């Protein structure tokens, strides 16, 4: 049995679909099983912050897809106890959704999780993903539907990756037993002017890029979401602004036999999101 955490989220839901298509037994670990209507064959209540949910979740499980929920930053308190529970329950392989550059930034939660996992005697797969294309259809959905995209990325490029490709790599890691650390990116790096041109070409309306200042971005984001998330998002776009998010990797093709999806294809597939 493969336990998928974050099973209602962007990547976890696609991992469940992929594993089901491969006829792998998959259990969705969710906070509200009564509302779960996804593809997993089995569902269990699981909350990182509630250790009483660990035992039933990890029962008869050999492998785990690990998603660190974005709202959880206290790794030692909220994630490590669950991982320790998984290991003592007999889990032998953990595939972790990490973030590109985690190995160079020991302070971010993903780096601390990688470090803990590397120190225990189990197989690990670290999928260090670039920025998801799906941020355009979720976080920025409304403003794009209204014809603008305002982020403080300057002319910087980002090697955006389709979360469906990340999910495909995760599923293959389980099925083929692939271990190691991999950088998952899209096929090219794009700047946000180009992102808007591609959106405008596909959608019935024009989408204009506004390269807003960092302080204005933080203030705008903080109106609609927690300040911590606004700061994290600012950090991500500032990284792009300074040319630090444009590295393209071939790991998807070489290790997972997965051609990275071009941004134009993602936009075509998701166009109903912005209608
Ligand atoms: N966005 C990007 O561009 C990007 C790029 C690289 C890496 N990442 C990393 O990817 C991860 C997020 O993945 P995602 O975008 O697929 O997730 P997501 O769509 O944001 O969904 C979060 C998931 O976490 C679950 N969750 C929230 N709190 C929980 C808790 N206390 N216990 C158990 N489950 C909980 C949610 O389930 P409920 O249904 O219960 O709410 C949901 O399934 C983050 O670690 C992020 O840093 C993101």
From TrEMBL:
Annotated SUPFAM superfamilies: NAD(P)-binding Rossmann-fold domains (SSF51735)
Ranges for domain NmrA-like: 2-215
Pfam families: NmrA (PF05368)
Name of the molecule in the record: NAD(P)H-binding protein
């Amino acid at each position: 049995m493969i336990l998928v955490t974050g099973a209602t989220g962007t990547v976890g839901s696609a991992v469940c679909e992929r594993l089901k298509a491969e006829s792998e037994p998959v259990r969705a670990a969710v906070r509200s099983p009564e509302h779960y209507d996804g593809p997993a064959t089995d569902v269990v209540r699981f909350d990182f912050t509630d250790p009483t949910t660990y035992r039933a979740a990890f029962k008869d499980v050999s492998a785990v897809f690990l998603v660190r929920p974005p709202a959880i930053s206290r790794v030692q308190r909220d994630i490590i106890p669950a991982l320790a529970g998984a290991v003592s329950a007999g889990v032998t392989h953990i595939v972790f959704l990490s973030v590109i550059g985690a190995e160079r930034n020991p302070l971010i939660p993903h780096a601390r999780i990688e470090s803990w996992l590397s120190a225990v005697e189990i197989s690990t797969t670290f999928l260090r993903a670039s920025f998801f294309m799906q941020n355009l259809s979720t976080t920025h959905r409304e403003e794009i539907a209204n014809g603008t995209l305002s982020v403080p990325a300057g002319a910087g490029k980002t090697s955006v990756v389709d979360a469906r490709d990340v999910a495909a790599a995760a599923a293959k890691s389980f099925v083929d037993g692939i271990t190691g650390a991999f950088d998952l990116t899209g096929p090219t790096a794009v700047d946000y002017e180009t992102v808007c041109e591609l959106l405008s070409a596909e959608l019935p309306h024009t989408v204009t890029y506004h390269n807003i200042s960092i302080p204005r971005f933080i203030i705008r984001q903080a109106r609609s979401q927690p300040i911590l998330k606004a700061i994290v998002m600012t950090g991500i776009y500032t990284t792009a602004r300074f040319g630090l998010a444009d590295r393209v990797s071939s790991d998807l093709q070489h290790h997972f036999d997965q051609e990275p999806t071009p941004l134009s294809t993602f936009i075509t597939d998701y166009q109903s999101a912005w209608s």
